Amino acid sequence: MSWLEVLVLGLVQGLTEFLPISSSGHLRIVSGAVFGNDPGAAFTAVTQLGTELAVLIYFARDIGNLVMTWFRGFRDPEVRATPDYRVAWLVIIGTIPISILGVLFKPQIETVARNLWLIATTLIVFGLLLGLAERYGPQRRPIEQLTVRDGVLLGFAQALALIPGVSRSGGTITAGLFLGLTRPAAVRYSFLLAIPAVVAAGLFQLPDVFAGDGPSGLQMLVATLIAFLVGYAVIAWLLRYVQKHSVYVFVAYRIALGAALLAALSIGAVSAY
């Protein structure tokens, strides 16, 4: 892997991880279209450690409060009645589907799921679903009103992002809007829900990324650092953006990118693998 590819993919990871447009899909598309190869699912998982570090720092106070509340709830019945205690448990519950499915389907995720025909299709289909959720979702409930049922459904929505092109944040935000969450609440919960799964996946696949003729340790460090710095800025921007704007711009972008990719594949300008 060249240094130019490392720098570009680190930037792409940071820019796209938190937007509902699929960072894994973009890494696969950019690497295939520009550099003529596939960095692999392991590269994606490890660079996501940088963007999740950005989440941990940006939401440090919220995360610290959820963790402390969760531990206090084991000995204090009054704490167990608080919204923070429930949200902490829902993050844990919502992490279970992607953890199990990620292990069960690891071979498929690293091979057939990275086909660009599939990625183009999921960009369009899940872009349309995001648009429908924006249009028809009631958007009345804050994050404190999440239920166990919501946590399970949002967990399975996040698990769909094991397929590049779906988007972890996009799947969670789409499900959240359909379930009646406000746009800011759906975005905020998507950040919190991603932390355990992404950190675990990155650490789990860390040995794989250095196998064969992949990137060096220094290259991975640089790519992850770039993803962290850019990702932190994107978090701040997205939280402000969704306060006053719809997600239709992301819907249009997903459909346009998916259509362009289908066209490129059809004329043989880009290889599907």
Sequence of secondary-structure elements: HHHHHHHHHHHHH
Q: How confident is the prediction overall: mean pLDDT?
A: 93
For the secondary structure, the number of strands is 0
Structural class: mainly alpha
Helix count equals 13
Gyration radius, rounded: 18 Å
Major beta-sheet overview: none
Helix content: over 70%
Poorly predicted runs: none
Range of strand content: under 5%
Alpha-carbon distance between the two ends: 17 Å
Shape: globular
What is the fold's blueprint, element by element?
Elements: H1 3-16, H2 23-34, H3 41-58, H4 60-72, H5 83-104, H6 106-109, H7 116-136, H8 148-159, H9 168-178, H10 183-204, H11 206-209, H12 217-244, H13 248-266
Helix pairs in contact: 1-2, 1-12, 3-10, 3-12, 4-5, 5-8, 5-10, 7-9, 7-13, 8-9, 9-10, 10-12
Feature tags:
273 residues, mainly alpha, 73% helix, 13 helices
Concise structural overview:
The protein is mainly α. The chain contains 13 helices and no strands.
Tell me about this structure.
With 273 residues, this protein is mainly alpha-helical. It contains 13 helices and no strands. It has helices spanning 3-16, 23-34, 41-58, 60-72, 83-104, 106-109, 116-136, 148-159, 168-178, 183-204, 206-209, 217-244, 248-266. The longest helix has 28 residues, at 217-244. The protein is globular, with a radius of gyration of 18 Å. The mean pLDDT is 93.
